[in-house]
Amino acid sequence: MLRNKISIFAASADNEEVSLQIDQDFCTRPISLKVPLFEIDPLESLALLKMAQNQQINHAYKTQDSLEQEPTIFLPFYGEVFKSINFDYYIPLDSLIQYFTDLPSWVKVTRKDGQYHFQLIGKQAELKLFDPLVMVDWVPVDDANAILSIKPWNVKKIDILNEPYIHGDILYGGIINILSKNNDFGGLRFPQSAMFLNIAFYDQNILEDPWNNPFGEASQNTLLWKTFYGKETAPNNIINLKAPQAKGNYNLLFQYLDNQQNKKFFFKEIRVN
């Protein structure tokens, strides 16, 4: 299959004439497709009945194995999305803008003075007053023209949050997150002065031995990094830090040198509600 060109081959085992009918995804005119007759013999019917009975018995009496691990559900920092456009579920389109305009994406694309703009559609008035936060592979990009130049065959899916998002003192009119298939920004070209960091978060091995973690002593996902030299200490031994926006449990890692210059550390777990 070539890009923008699809070849379809059909054959009949009974040497009968083959007719091809296509249901166009974006056509509003109803079309009636013939459904082939489905028949099973008595032995197949009995086998299907036993399979259904076994499935019901298994569902009713099976107990959860304590050794089975529950699947890890990844939620982005903005929580559950309102709409997710998975490109594998649709026929290929020529440009990225078509996925916003031809599909029910709740994203309005406008153009003024040669520059494209995104606006999310929703009930809140803030969506009309503030621009959305648009990201490509989790990196904010404020050039709509450059974003729409991404080739659609490089994109895996688009996550859309059509409600205001507050980050500090900044209010965004929703979130649009474009995820590429190869985690390469979909071929988007950034300025030569741009610099990206590959952030690796703590795992259990690092927590058990923080001094010998593969990232060195500078942990990339720390919320606060503060150093005290000599006899200098925090006032009243209290350290204040700004809590993260995401709710959950966090580990505070304290590293220090004792009087004999031995490396020491301890953890303090906190919860953000």
CATH superfamily of the domain at 83-185: TonB-dependent receptor, plug domain
- The level-1 CATH class of the domain at 83-185: Mainly Beta
Strand content: 15-25%
Mean pLDDT: 76
* Total of DSSP H or I helical runs spanning 4+ residues: 5
Fraction of residues in helix: 10-25%
The number of E-state strands comes to 11
Biggest sheet layout: 5 strands, mixed
Radius of gyration: 28 Å
Description:
With 273 residues, the chain is α+β, with helices and mostly antiparallel strands. Among the domains are: 83-185, Ferric Hydroxamate Uptake Protein, Chain A, domain 1 (Beta Complex); 204-272, no CATH class. It contains five helices and eleven strands. The strands form four sheets. A five-stranded mixed β-sheet has the order 1-6-9-4-5, with no helix packed on it. Strands 2-3 form a two-stranded antiparallel sheet. A two-stranded antiparallel ribbon has the order 7-8. β7 (165-167) and β8 (170-172) form a beta hairpin. It is extended and about 90 Å long.
Fold topology:
Blueprint: H1 42-61, E1 83-86, H2 96-101, E2 107-112, E3 115-120, H3 126-129, E4 133-136, E5 139-140, H4 144-148, E6 155-161, E7 165-167, E8 170-172, E9 175-180, H5 204-208, E10 248-257, E11 263-272
Parallel strand pairs: 4-9
Antiparallel strand pairs: 1-6, 2-3, 4-5, 6-9, 7-8, 10-11
Task: Please summarize what this structure is.
The chain is built from 5 helices and 11 strands; from the N terminus they run H-E-H-E-E-H-E-E-H-E-E-E-E-H-E-E. With 273 residues, the protein is α+β, with helices and mostly antiparallel strands.
